[in-house]
Amino acid sequence: MRYIAIEGAIGVGKTALAERLAERLKARLVLEEVDENPFLDRFYEDIPSYAFQTQVFFLLSRHRQQQALKQPGLFEDAVVSDYLFEKDRIFASLNLTEHEFALYERIYELLARDIVQPDIVVYLQARTEVLQARIKQRGRPCESAIAPEYLEALSDAYNHYFLHYEAGPVLIVNTERTDFVRSQEDFEDLFRAIKTTTSGRRFYSPRGKRK
Predict the structure, then answer these.
(1) Model pLDDT for residues 117-170, shown as the tens digit of each residue
(2) Please, which residues bridge with residue 110 across strands?
(3) Using CA atoms, how far apart are residues 114 and 106, in angstroms rounded to an integer?
(4) Which terminus in the chain has less CB density within 10 A, N or C?
(5) pTM of the model
(6) d(C-alpha 194, C-alpha 27), whole Å
(7) Minimal CA–CA distance to 11: which of 169, 151, 166?
(8) CB 79 within 8 A of CB 28
């Protein structure tokens, strides 16, 4: 468990879990640079006009961060990231036109060749209405314009991707019945599930807890 990546749709709780895991493991924390993207505010207001610029900025930013993971001696300690590099292609497939995506693919293929793969991916899930409530609660102005249809399409794309993911173990977590931020018991239960997921695709859904 040297390298753990957390994934899921917007608002599902990736960063919150990554921060808790990094603290628990005394690991290096890698967070995607959302606020640094100068196109993001305009993207949510007008996706067709700003999708390509937004996507390429994220792609290059994530690649730079991933390259830093290859520094000598880095994996003497654990690393926890709140994204998987391949997520960029999921968003691109939703947001770009056919011709934009064809150009994006050529750039992506060049950059993806030497990316370090995580030892395990924790894929967080929640229904669209739950994602909307969490997005509203955290109050990022640029996210206020996200349509429920977009969140639904994004969740479907994530589900399809992880249904076919074969690069390593995946723990799929239903986040609607657990509160790993405020409940230490819930966090420790999820932490045990992460530690014991060593191969294949595993589903974690704590029953009898929060609804």
Answers:
(1) 899 999 999 999 999 998 888 877 777 778 899 999 999 999 999 988 998 999
(2) none
(3) 15
(4) C
(5) 0.89
(6) 15
(7) 151
(8) yes
